[in-house]
Structure formats: C-alpha cells, structure tokens
C-alpha cells in the first residue's frame, strides 16, 4: 500500500504569546539547560515565537558573568542536534536578553539580586511583571528554592502582585515515591496555587503524543471501535538500544519503573484510554486522564508474577561490538538488582475497557530503539473464506509510532492477486515526515510556549502524579525488598528483554509485536543468543 500523499506543507499556525515574560532558570549551568532549554528557546526565537521583550535569567552556583553565560549557551546551541541552523543575527538579539546570577540556592543574596534584576529588566523595557520560574535542579533542592521564592516575596496568592502572573515549571522526577511526591506537592502548594504549577513531562509535548488525541477525537471512524467490543488488547513499547551510559549513579536510585513508568508510560496509557474531554484545554483533558489512572486495577502482590516482569541487561554483542552488562557500567553496584527492563499487564476497570489487557514494556539495551502503541483488534467472528495453510491471516493492528519515524499504520487482510481467494496482511502507512515535510517542534518548544501562554493541558496535575505513584508503589516496594526470581542479569544486550516478558503475553495466547529497526538506525543485525558470560 502506498503512503498517504503529501497534500500540502503545513507550517505552524502558532502565534507568539501576546504578553511577554521573564524566564528564570534555576540550574542554568546544568545539563538540561544546555541540552534542552536554551536550544528550545533559541528555536522559538528563530520561529519568531518568543514574545517581544523576552528575557532569560539563569541562576546557579558556578561563577559566571552575563557574557560568559551567553558564550556558554551559544556553544550549547551550536552543538545541539535539536537546535535549528545557527543564525548569528537571531542569536545576537536573543542573547542580549540573557543574564546570569551566581548564587547558592539556599542563600538569601541570590534572591535579593534576582529581585533587583527582574525589577531593572521590567522597568527598563516597560515589561509587565510576568515571571516563569523553571526548576532545572536536582530534585532535592526543589523544596528549598520554592520556599525561598515564597519567603522573598516572589509569589503572592494568585500571584497578582501588580498586573503580572507567576508560574513555576517543575521537572521530573516528581518525588521518588508517593510520600515524597505528596510532600513536594504540599511544599509547592504552600507557596503556589495549583493553577500556577506546571509539572513537566516532555513526552506529553511530543507532536505524535498530541496527535494521538487528534487521531482519536477528530476522526469519527475511530471512536466507535475504541473500546472493549473491538479491541483485543493494547501494547505500549518504549525501547532503548542504549544502556545507562554515564547515568549509572542516577539510574541506581531510579530504575526503570521510576524512570519510565511513573511518568511517561502511565501518561501514554491515560491518553490512549481516556474518554473524550468536553474541550481541549483547562481541566477537561486532565480530568479525563486522571479518571483513567483512578480506574487502573491496583497491582496485586499475590499474583505479581502474572502481572509484572523485571529484568536487567547482561553483556551482549550488538553490531559486532561487545557491550558490558549493567552491573559493569560506571557508577553501578556490581551486585545491583536495579531493574533496567519492566513489562506490566494492567487493566483499566471501567465501562470502556473492562477486561482488555494493556501490556506495557520499557527497557534499556533492547533490540530496537522504538516507542510505539499497538492496538490489536479482535478477530472477525466468522471467517468464511476457505483458507489454506499458506494464507496468513492476522488480526487488524493499528500501530501508532511515537518515535522514530513518527506515523500511523493500519494492518489489514487483503486478497492476493490471482484466480484463487488467497489472503495476506497488508499495511497502510501515514508518515509524519513524508506528509507534512516539516520538522516538528521539539517537545520543550511546545511545552515552554504553552507555559508562557498559561495552557496547562499537557502538564501533569498533582492528583495524576499521586495516582501514578499509588499504582506503582506496591511493586517498587516488593522489588526493592526481594531478589529477582530469575537472578540478574536475565537478558542479553540487544535482545527484546527477558523470556518472562514473552511469557506474560504467551500465557494469554498473545505475543509482543517486536518491530524491526528503522532504516534510519545504524544497527541492522544483532547476535543476542542469550547472555554473553
Ligand atoms: N538532563 C536531562 O536531560 C534531564 C531530562 C529530564 C529531566 N531532568 C531533570 O532536570 C533537573 C536538572 O537536571 P540536570 O541534568 O540539568 O542536572 P545538573 O546537570 O546536575 O544541573 C544541576 C544544576 O543545579 C545547580 N545547582 C546544584 N546545586 C546547587 C546549589 N546548591 N546552589 C546553586 N546551584 C546549584 C548546578 O549548578 P553548578 O553546575 O553550577 O554546580 C546546575 O546548574 C533534574 O531534576 C533532572 O531530573 C533532566
């Protein structure tokens, strides 16, 4: 089947925010600022989507002057794979609005300097006192910075000191369990109202994740079949080919459940399973997503083996290279039982989805880098064609590719040309890149602009964050307290995870769809025949 023809090239209809603001980054010398935030802001500047008079104030402990901060960030943009081609003129204008304060988060001097600098910027440029604070800092400092912002008078209830607004963006991870997430929510709520808080999960800013909502709710053919009558089961896969790389120390504290499931994957589940909201925006979308998380049947410790699988990668040979096991990575305990792979079977216990399994898996050092959602539909009730053993009839599959090669495919049965009635599955493809011929905005561009415009739709609300922790906490606790039944490592680098992950579906008469590597990926073949000793 041929792809849908590109009908027209669509450029972003987004307009620049009408009101300007000052964007204050706590942690401005860190990795996130350098790799994501400044490149995203620069891209917005290139696209003329930043408001007139926009300024950035960076704060961190590394001593820097405005000029050296601008130079550092210029280098970051030039090195970034996500930034659009470097444009000297755009950068010069953008950089003129960049400032830096050297300060310890706990010390009052930094906040006093910030007060003075914000007033100076707002007075000199006749800007309203709209301020967007971004916490690009280790989670352990969030409470400190938030309470200092409160103590130093940056936030009054409803934030209307003058005519301006105050908002805060908080990075993931949001807590490391239910109790710490509740504590952080309580700390933020003593200073900020919920409407001012933007808990960011960059997955939700991805173009294809938003397209999931467009696909479901802007097409009348989808909604009638999006339920337990027609859907056999749903698979969500978020697979990485990379290992933990230089993040071993962080990963030892996090593990796959915290790193991927608590935020990204449960959010994807919520978008796939949610009921139609009354409108896009405000609390409508977030209410419907919360309903889904509330409806997920809690994981029962009694039958954990049938609902959850954990794994850890061993060594393996990928593209002819021998790769180390997780336990041999830098910063990792050589006896670590931290999981680098998780597969779960969950049920959303409501009218629409009762008894439909949602199989969700994620892992590092897997065979293919891919994030996709597969909706497998039920077989036809009666197959009246006289099929031979050569006919391959598969159930209809709807494959929504989040990354890479963003797009949607539908697999269905077709007649093989010829005099006999022979059937074969074929595929109809929609490719984002081919159809629209534009590079989609990065997730951070979308989300930063949303926060500037006061649109919280794609950000997490406190109840959703807490529901997600509530759901995973029993599993986190049991896995922390017990050794894995099959000793780690239990899957080879370059494989599709432990065999118990396949069994999770085989027991139900189903199988994972293991997609081939994209042609864009360098790795073509692997030889992972078990754990390499
Ligand atoms: N990096 C990513 O790709 C990524 C992705 C998703 C989420 N996140 C989240 O984003 C947050 C930041 O991550 P990151 O990777 O950017 O961390 P990072 O590289 O360690 O940066 C931390 C920043 O905080 C500053 N800092 C730390 N302690 C300070 C103190 N006492 N006083 C003043 N400044 C202090 C550091 O300043 P100095 O450098 O000057 O010491 C640095 O600017 C974390 O919550 C992380 O989980 C990061």
Mean pLDDT: 91
User: Shape, please?
Assistant: globular
Distance between the termini: 44 Å
Task: Kindly provide the radius of gyration, computed on alpha-carbon positions and rounded to a whole number of angstroms.
Answer: 25 Å
Which percent band covers the strand fraction?
Answer: 15-25%
Kindly describe this structure.
The chain is globular. It has an eight-stranded mixed sheet, sandwiched between helices. It has a six-stranded parallel sheet with strand order 3-2-1-4-5-6, sandwiched between helices. It is α/β, with parallel strands linked by helices. The N terminus and C terminus are likely disordered. It has 14 helices and 18 strands. It binds NADP nicotinamide-adenine-dinucleotide phosphate.
What labels describe this entry?
533 residues, alpha/beta, Rossmann fold, Dihydrodipicolinate Reductase, domain 2, 2 domains, 8-stranded mixed sheet, 6-stranded parallel sheet, 18 strands, globular, disordered N terminus, binds NADP nicotinamide-adenine-dinucleotide phosphate
């Amino acid at each position: 089947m041929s792809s849908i023809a590109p009908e027209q090239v669509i450029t972003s209809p987004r307009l620049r925010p009408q009101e300007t603001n000052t964007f204050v980054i706590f942690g401005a010398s860190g990795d996130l600022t350098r790799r994501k935030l400044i490149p995203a802001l620069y891209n917005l500047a290139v696209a003329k989507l930043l408001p007139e008079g926009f300024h950035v104030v960076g704060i961190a402990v590394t001593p820097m002057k405005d000029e050296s901060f601008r130079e550092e960030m210029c280098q970051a943009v030039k090195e970034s794979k996500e930034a659009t081609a470097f444009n000297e003129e755009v950068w010069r204008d953008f950089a003129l609005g960049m400032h830096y304060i050297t300060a310890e988060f706990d010390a009052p001097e930094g906040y006093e300097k910030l007060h003075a600098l914000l007033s100076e910027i707002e007075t000199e440029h006749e800007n309203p006192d709209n301020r967007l604070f971004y916490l690009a800092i280790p989670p352990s400092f969030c409470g400190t910075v938030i309470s200092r912002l409160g103590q130093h008078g940056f936030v009054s209830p409803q934030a209307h000191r003058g005519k301006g607004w105050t908002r805060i963006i908080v990075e993931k991870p949001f807590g490391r369990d239910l109790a710490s997430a509740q504590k952080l929510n309580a700390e933020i709520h003593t200073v900020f109202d919920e409407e001012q808080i933007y808990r960011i999960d960059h997955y939700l800013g991805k173009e294809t994740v938003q397209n999931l909502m467009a696909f479901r709710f802007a097409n009348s053919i989808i909604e009638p079949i999006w339920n337990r009558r027609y859907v056999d089961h749903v698979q969500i896969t978020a697979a990485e080919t990379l290992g933990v790389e230089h993040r071993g120390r962080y990963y030892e504290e996090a593990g796959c459940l915290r790193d991927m499931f608590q935020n990204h994957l449960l959010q994807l589940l919520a978008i796939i399973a949610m009921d139609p909201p009354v409108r896009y925006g405000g609390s409508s979308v977030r209410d419907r997503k919360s309903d889904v998380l509330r409806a997920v049947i809690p994981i029962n410790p009694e039958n954990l083996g049938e609902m959850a699988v954990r794994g850890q990668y061993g060594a393996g040979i990928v593209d002819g290279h021998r790769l180390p096991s997780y336990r041999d990575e830098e910063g990792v305990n050589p006896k670590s039982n931290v999981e680098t792979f998780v597969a779960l079977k969950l049920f959303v216990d409501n009218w629409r989805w009762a008894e439909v399994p949602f199989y969700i898996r994620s892992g590092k050092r897997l065979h293919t880098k891919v994030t996709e959602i597969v909706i497998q539909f039920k077989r036809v009730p009666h197959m009246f064609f006289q099929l031979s053993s050569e006919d391959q009839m598969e159930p209809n599959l709807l494959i929504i590719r989040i990354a890479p090669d963003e797009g949607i495919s539908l697999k269905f049965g077709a007649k093989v040309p010829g005099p006999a009635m022979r059937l074969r599955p074929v595929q109809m493809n929609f490719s984002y890149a081919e159809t629209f011929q534009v590079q989609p905005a990065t997730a951070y561009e979308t989300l930063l602009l949303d926060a500037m415009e006061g649109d919280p739709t794609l950000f997490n609300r406190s109840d959703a964050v807490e529901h997600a922790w509530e759901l995973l906490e029993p599993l986190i606790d049991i896995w922390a307290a017990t050794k894995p039944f099959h000793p780690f490592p239990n899957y080879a680098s370059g494989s599709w995870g432990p065999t118990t992950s396949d069994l999770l579906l085989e027991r139900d008469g189903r199988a994972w769809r293991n997609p081939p590597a994209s042609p864009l990926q360098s790795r073509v073949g692997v030889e992972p025949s078990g754990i390499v000793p």
